[in-house]
Amino acid sequence: MNMRLVNYFINQWKRLALQTGALLACLLFWQVASTTKLNLGFITFTYVPTPTAVLDAAWHLFTSNKLLPHLGSSLARVFSGYFAAVIVGIALGLVIGRSRVVEALLLPPLEVLRPIPAVAWIPLAILMFPSSEVSMIFITFTGALFPVLLNTIHGVEAVDKRLIASAKSLGASPFAILHEVILPGAAPSIITGLTIGMGTSWFCLVTAEMISGQWGIGYYTWESYVIQNYADIVVGMLLIGVLGMGCSLLVRLAGNFFIPWYYLRRNV
């Protein structure tokens, strides 16, 4: 047992070292390419800021009084749209996954809407909603909805029909079947959809905040492009990436807490 524990920590350290080495290699390439203005024909680093310039821009942002308003606005929009998508996506996914009639009625129009990119929703969102704030929340909502919805449907459909039949034969009510059989069976797929949905919410943030007039990390990134502050563009991109990764990690950890049997079985 002790040797297994030692081997586990050794493997974890090796993995951490490999990941750190990969990040350092990327930073080194970025530094060299941007410093030497590397031009490969199909891609050029002539106008790409160096990591040191990006670090300096990040320091100016973090020491200014603009960071908290930008962060607060973006977090409010992302989480508002995300939690609305979670409620709608899981509810629709459970109904569609359990009913062939509802699936035939709702899934075709949803599948038509699913490939539409967030940027294409901007003009319609402006026309549909009276305030730009609600429009931005709607765009982040559309980004998170379909990963949650489709993974919920697939999770529900993948539940072993024999388990449902056994529960019915034992006299379980429809609510008990949903709570005790379907939700636990579909939970791993639902958690996957929640994790992906959180990432796509942040992915859609820049698009959503293109219609914002003042605050938000996406607006900060877009404004930096307009006024050609290239280092600030990278700061905004990295900030969105870090925040999106952190939020997705929190969702994954919450999933580990709610369905520990699934992850325990995978790690045995």
UniProtKB/TrEMBL annotation:
Signal peptide: none annotated. Residues 71-251 form the ABC transmembrane type-1 domain. One of its GO terms (cellular component) is plasma membrane. The keyword Cell membrane applies. The chain crosses the membrane at residues 44-62, 74-97, 112-129, 136-156, 176-196, 234-264. Keywords: Cell membrane, Membrane, Transmembrane, Transmembrane helix, Transport. It is a multi-pass membrane protein. GO terms for biological process: alkanesulfonate transmembrane transport. Its main location: membrane. It is found in: Cell membrane. Pfam families: BPD_transp_1. The keyword Signal does not apply. PANTHER family: ABC TRANSPORTER PERMEASE PROTEIN MJ0413-RELATED, ALKANE SULFONATE ABC TRANSPORTER-RELATED, MEMBRANE SUBUNIT. Belongs to the binding-protein-dependent transport system permease family. This is ABC transporter permease. It comes from Cellvibrio polysaccharolyticus.
